[in-house]
Amino acid sequence: MQTSIEWLIESIKSLDKNLLNKIISIEEYDINLKWVIQQAKEIHKQEIIQCCHDNFTACCSNELSTKSAESYYNCVFKKD
Fold first, then answer.
1. Coil, helix or strand for 60?
2. Which domain holds residue 52?
C-alpha cells in the first residue's frame, strides 16, 4: 500500500519530469503542483481517520464510527 507521502513524492517526480521534458509549461506545473498537494493532504487525512478508527475500535468495547474518527482528526489537525 502506498502512503500519502509516497504518493506525493511520486507525483512531484512525475511533474518534474514533465516540466524538464517540456511536456507542460511552468504555469501548468504550478497548477498541477497545487492540486497534487491538496490531494496528498486529503489522502493523509483519510489515513489518519482510518488509523484513529481502527485503533479506537481495537481498544474500546464499543466501536466508534468513522464520523467520530473524522471529528478527532478535525479537532487535532484542522487549523482552518
1. coil
2. 4-77
